[in-house]
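Dear colleague,

Thank you for sharing your sequence with our group. We've completed the structure prediction you requested, and as agreed, I am returning the results in plain text so they can be pasted directly into your records. Please verify that the sequence below matches your submission; if there's any discrepancy, let me know and we will rerun it promptly.
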Amino acid sequence: QVELAESGGGLVQPGGSLRLSCTASGRTSSNYAVAWFRQAPGKEHAFVAAIRRSGGETKYYADSVKGRFTISRDSAKNTVYLQMNSLQPEETAVYYCALGMRLITSSVRDSSAYAYWGQGTQVTVSS
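Please find the predicted structure tokens below.
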């Protein structure tokens, strides 16, 4: 069983930055991915970014966040971070981290491929 805990959300002005953290506990396989999704009110989960370990390490980003968001991992702390810069009001949402094992490349952006989810952290971008 894997448990995920997010932190780092809050209120930020447009153009501001936040760093989200996702700490995992429990056993994982050597082939896994940790992703960030966001869900605005009345909408489905939207893929934001993922980091996948399968031999090497690969990072994936939604087109809308490339160049502004950075996903990274601290293996010693079992923690994945999402650094978010130049945030805009339309990015207000609950941000979730999720973990899936033995994902294939084509499913990294698919929320249904992830078996484990955190409780979510609210990010509000407003002046």
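Summary note from our side: The mean pLDDT is 95.

Kind regards,
the structure core
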